[in-house]
Amino acid sequence: MRGRFHNGEDKWLHLNQLMGDDKIAILVLQETHLTQDHTTTLNEIFSDSLLITSSLDQNHPHSKGVAIVFNRRLLGHNNEKINILGVYTSNDPTGNKHFWKIIHSSIINLP
After folding, report:
1. pLDDT, tens digit only, all 111 positions of the chain
2. Which one of 44, 45, 46, 51 is most buried, counting C-beta atoms within 10 A?
3. Of 103, 82, 100, whose CA–CA distance to 91 is shortest?
4. How far is 100 from 88, CA to CA, in rounded Å?
């Protein structure tokens, strides 16, 4: 996603439209650069249509960040448990290989 704006336009307006038009229920984004304040503001703006959760590396706030976006219009409220994995990992081959081993061992027995 590489940040919130492109040519002065807020990407989240387009994302909201896209998720509605294309009936996307859950979308995982990388490089969102969303602070907690930005996430709170977006959740207020799109309170009827989207729920956004995000993470940010406080040491590198302008270069990282993952968000999971839920389309409120499509997701029910039946309390079913779902597992979602959004991955943002190192490009370093050694670190990357170790990371995937940890992920595999962590999720192999999930329902």
Report:
1. 555 555 667 789 999 999 999 999 999 998 888 888 989 999 999 999 999 999 877 787 666 788 999 999 988 767 777 777 777 777 777 888 888 888 888 887 776
2. 46
3. 100
4. 11
